[in-house]
Specification:
The longest helix is centred in the N-terminal third of the chain and has 35 residues, at 29-63. It is built from 6 helices and no strands. The chain is mainly alpha-helical.
């Protein structure tokens, strides 16, 4: 996982730089900068709106006495979306705008929950198969020299 993150940290800026140079050479530098700022502003507004909807949905879950698990995961994805959208570049903007689609976000949340449920089930089965418990008591080891010295003190 750490290698994958390192790979992303190296490749994403390089790809972004390449795309920015290509777009800049096509539409001009100022237009490219304005387009980046515009997508960041639009994205921030959309993330704020969907974030408020997610908070309201989480509060409704609390009112019904349910844990807002899905809403929390949606919130995490929206936070990632916000980071992607304010990062300068078009590739991260595309990824961010994709995560703004509620159906895609919901699919990712359901997929994550299913994977976690599968891991929990595997751990439960493992514990059932290997449920042998060995109960031991540890007694401190006696020091013969200390015992001999104590016998002289008496």
């Amino acid at each position: 996982m750490l290698k994958f993150l390192l790979f992303l940290l190296i490749t994403i800026p390089l790809v972004e730089l390449y795309v920015l140079i290509e777009v800049g050479s096509s539409i001009g530098g100022l237009a490219t900068i304005l387009l980046c700022l515009g997508t960041a502003a639009l994205g921030a507004t959309l993330v704020r709106y969907q974030g408020l909807k997610t908070i309201i949905s989480a509060q409704e879950s609390f009112m019904r006495g349910q844990a807002p698990t899905e809403q929390v995961l949606h919130g995490i994805l929206l936070a990632l979306t916000g980071i992607l959208l304010v990062t300068p570049g078009f590739v991260t903007d595309i990824l961010g705008f994709l995560l703004l689609i509620p159906a895609l976000r919901n699919y990712l949340v359901v997929l994550f929950i299913a994977q976690q449920a599968q891991k929990i089930e595997q751990q439960r089965r493992f514990r059932q198969e290997y449920h042998d418990v060995i109960d031991i008591e540890i007694e401190p080891q006696r020091d013969p020299i200390k015992d001999r010295l104590q016998s002289y003190d008496r």
